[in-house]
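Supplementary Note 3. Input sequence used for the single-chain structure prediction.
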Amino acid sequence: MTGTVINVVGGGLAGCEAAWRAASRGVRCVLWEMKPVKFSPAHRSPDLAELVCSNSFRASSTDNAVGLLKEEMRRLGSVVMDAAARTAVPAGKALAVDRERFSRLVTETVEAHPLIEVRREELTGWPETPDPVVMSPGPLASEPATELLGAATGKDSLSFYDALAPIVTSESLDMTKVFSQDRYGPEGGGDYLNAPLEKAEFLAFLDALVEADRTAARSFEDEKYFEGCLPIEVMATRGPRTLTFGPMKPVGLTDPRTGRRPYAAVQLRRENLEGTLWNIVGFQTRLTRPAQDKVFRMIPGLERCEFARYGAIHRNTFLSAPDVLDPWQRLLPRPSVFMAGQISGVEGYVESAAQGLWAGENAARTVLGIPLSMPPRASALGSLVSHLRPEGRGGPFAPSNVNFGLFPALPKRLPRSESAANRRRESASLRAEAALASWTPLKEDANHVFTW
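The predicted structure, written as discrete structure tokens, is reproduced below.
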């Protein structure tokens, strides 16, 4: 038992996971949660770990990156994964939960821990303590929390985005149909990939895009878009040639198959230095995920594309992690503060909880006076947090889900086919399993302190 107290700010998935992990290490925690004194526009329940957007924790199988991350969390004693398993509802190959039962169970479990004190009040300033602080205010951070972080890091490092273009994996692209070329650059090379469309292909795509299902804006999301960042389906309603003068303009490109300029073209920009992920340029959207699966796979070369991230339009507050956080997710201007959850630059329920667990572990390690831990690079958690570091950065920083495109490249590239893609996923999963085994996260040393 230590006399030091870790303050965890925010009782969402990441905050609960951070407090639980630190308390499991024998370190006392105070978990600050402003509900029910104050609610964000999206929250309704007074319980901790409230699920706002969905009841799904996504795929369960470990041949999927998020399934692998969940398995790693289970081995690390995750309170979120335990509650999810105990409140699961039928969802095929995915893990989905009864939202109310899930949040209530997390609340009861966290509040019952003898080393965790839950304080129901809003913090409007930094905790006055030299002890570690874990900040996990979530993507809808309150105004005081946003001001604290903005003042500590600078306005340029704290972002509010409302538009995300989809990201696809390189191995899922049909390279016989897409070609490399920068606009007005020489044929046969360039930093961009281009998917050319003939007129009939473009018009069929346009019709499907305009008719596709869209997600409804929530009450706190005002559908006032910046003209320079319109959803692609909104641009499509402004006339049949709007897209060919916008994100699908073919000027400066030559289709090597025909030797001439295509009628329209979709450009893909490298998302990471390894070239395993590609951003569909200008395709920010409010289309539902099933609609994106259907419509965007009408683009030649993307018929079998695998989405590492779907396009979205929604409010999110996040830090430009590579610029303001150290490798252990501490604020560079305030090294006693660990950032956790979506605000640190990850995307999704599972990713937020996993990153909170890791922050709680390292906050506890700070108190216990033992070296901070870095997950193995080949593990799902290690690959996720590597996205938050400067190395490997391929452009402006944006939050990401865990996906196999973030994992280290496999030594041999297998031929492109559905079975080969499955083998690649299996190989990445097996390699992550081996890396995790070498990490020995649940082994106790002679002092009864967990070692990673």
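The two ends are 19 Å apart (CA to CA). The first strand starts at residue 5 and ends at 9.
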